[in-house]
Amino acid sequence: MASAAEIIGTNIETSALFLLTVLLLYTLWRLYFGNPFKPASPLPPGPFGFPVVGYLPFLRPDLHHQFTDLAGKYGPIFKLQLGSRLCMVVSSPSLVKEIVRDQDAIFGNRHPTAAALIATYGGRDIAFAPLGNYWREARKIFVREMLSSKNIRACHDHRREEVRKAIRSLRSKSGQAVNIRELASLTEMNVVTRMIMGSTLGSDEEKREKVGEMFREVMGKFVATLGEPNISDFFPWLERFDLQGIQGKMGNLVKVVGDILEPIIEEGEKMVSEKSQRDGRKAGDEKDFMQILLELKAGEAGKFLDFGAIKAILEDIVIGGTDTTATTVEWVMAVLLDDLEVMKQVQNELEQIVGMNSTVEELHLPKLTYLDAVVKETLRLHPPLPLLVPRCPTATSQVGGYTIPKGTRVFLNTHALHRDPQLWDNPLKFMPERFLDPGLVSGLDYTGNDFRFLPFGSGRRICAGIPLAEKMLMYILASLLHSFDWRLSEGEKLDLSDGFGIVARKKTPLIAVPTPRSSNSELYH
Predict the structure, then answer these.
(1) CB neighbours (10 Å) of residue 465?
(2) Which of 133, 167, 153, 241 is nearest to 195 (CA)?
(3) Four-point Cα dihedral 153, 156, 158, 162, nearest 10
(4) How far apart are CA 340 and CA 335, in angstroms?
(5) β-strand 511-516 against 484-488: which pairing, if any?
(6) In angstroms, rounded to a whole number, what is the distance separating the alpha carbons of residues 205 and 222?
(7) What is the CA 493 to chain-centroid distance, rounded?
(8) What PROSITE patterns does the annotation carry (predicted)?
(9) Which residue positions form the known binding site?
(10) What percent of the chain has pLDDT over 70?
(11) DSSP 420
């Protein structure tokens, strides 16, 4: 009978032989098939962070500038671990194309923050709604009913009246300092308010302006709250505790918006009901966008278009239609005040196309090629959304040979694209002429087809409001520059630094002084 020592020795030899066999088989597997516990392609490179919190402690307030700096070190695609969230930053045209064109169906979803989900009634708007039947129908309604060429032409008088009102107001303040962004925001808000609820509010201009002012105030807080860093977005399990109070603050703002909108929606429903009881529509009947939504809700679209969806869509239009446009107007005026020779060239073009005894009209806008180049060059240097809206792949995918796991937060860094010396000559210099070079600018428009220039995004998630935004940008700027000479207030220094948020505004508001260029005060009446 074998002794205990012999049995133990035999067992040790057998165990060792077994382990050696497993190691040999695993080595052969690795040689022929790679590591079975790692993805076939590696994750992109990126900076190291601390355990648990990742790279969060190293983030700077100027996130878009930091991401551009990191792209210079780690390449056109890199990863960041931010808390429990894996993030990727993409900064080259070819890789952006892979995401927004080649794999748009996978990368078409957004990655809404906790505050954004509250603001949009659980993602019922157009900007943050996941891809699917609801998003397709909501976007289709928005584009067909509000942004069609026919409807934009029909709202011509709204835009004309509001721009003229702004010019008249400025003439009355000749020689006084003016906050450019506030002026543009008020003008744009009045236009948007008239388009979405003008018929419902009726001809009472004071009532319309009061509603517009309430919207402008609350939407400013909306945008600021959406841009606040929230620990819940990096550690989703903390969301229920709302440690910073951001979700609670957004919930209160949603209630304020509801208090503004709900009486107007009730009035709109009553008007829609009265119209439907008549025999057909009268020739003079006009419907605003909100009434169109309410009519659709009463029909087949009611299956998905409830009051929450209507409010979320209207919020989208108000924020998207005012904040980015007003911010861009401010940036254009700022860069022109920094380069008075370019401003003079814009004004010379306006004198030639419009004349000094006429007012700017929308029919003049397509002929203002130099002003158009100035706007595009400003958007290149100062895109309103320098990281666009983050995307979220619905399946694990590959971009540039790297693995992008499902659920990753993907940033498209337009700030880096627009300042890449491999794509642009002298990229940090303000040079509108580059957009007049036929050899360079072929395709460099707002459609997102040239991935060097993406101020409004690209692919199926491109900004739907481009036709209206482009028209209003040109109309407001042409009118301001045709009607007035501009200078900074005495002793003021121009600051061209930007801040980071949902929209990248100037860090300090632009305050400028207008002087009328024509003595004819009746022009804009």
Answers:
(1) 22
(2) 153
(3) 140
(4) 9
(5) antiparallel
(6) 25
(7) 29
(8) CYTOCHROME_P450 (PS00086)
(9) 463
(10) 90
(11) -
DSSP class of 54: B
Q: Among 1-10, 317-326, 356-365, where is mean pLDDT lowest?
A: 1-10
Split at pLDDT 50, 70, 90, the class of 361 is: very high
Query: Which amino acid, residue 412?
Result: L
Residue pair 444/452 in contact (Cβ under 8 Å)? The answer is yes
Q: What is the DSSP letter of 99?
A: I
Q: Which residues contact 184 (CB under 8 A, 6 or more apart)?
A: 325, 326, 329, 330, 476
Return the structure tokens found at 72: 């210079």
Residues of the binding site for heme: 463
Radius of gyration of the chain (CA): 28
Helix axes 289-298, 180-201, angle to 10 degrees: 40
Going by C-alpha positions, the residue among 491, 522, 524, 496 that lies closest to residue 509 is 496
pTM of the model: 0.90
| Chain length of the chain | 525
Would you give the DSSP letter of residue 237? G
- Identify which of 497, 127, 475, 136 has the alpha carbon closest to the alpha carbon of residue 314: 127
C-alpha torsion 304→309→314→316, nearest 10: -100
Angle CA 63–68–69, to nearest 5 = 95
Looking only at the bridges linking them, the beta strands covering 409-412 and 397-399 are: unpaired
212-256 per-position pLDDT tens digit? 899 899 998 999 999 999 999 999 999 999 999 999 999 999 999
Give the other-Cβ count within 10 Å of 226's Cβ. 22
Give me the residue label for tokens 């208090």: 259
CA distance 185 to 32: 63
**Residue 80 DSSP code:** E
What lies within 8 Å, CB to CB, of 524 at 6+ separation is 164, 167, 168, 171, 359, 483
pLDDT, tens only, 495-524: 999 998 889 999 999 999 999 998 777 777
Pick from 193, 64, 41, 129: which is nearest to 497 by CA?
64
Tokens 């009532």 sit at which residue? 207
Fill in the amino acid letter for 410. Answer: V
Distance CA 190, CA 297 (A): 26
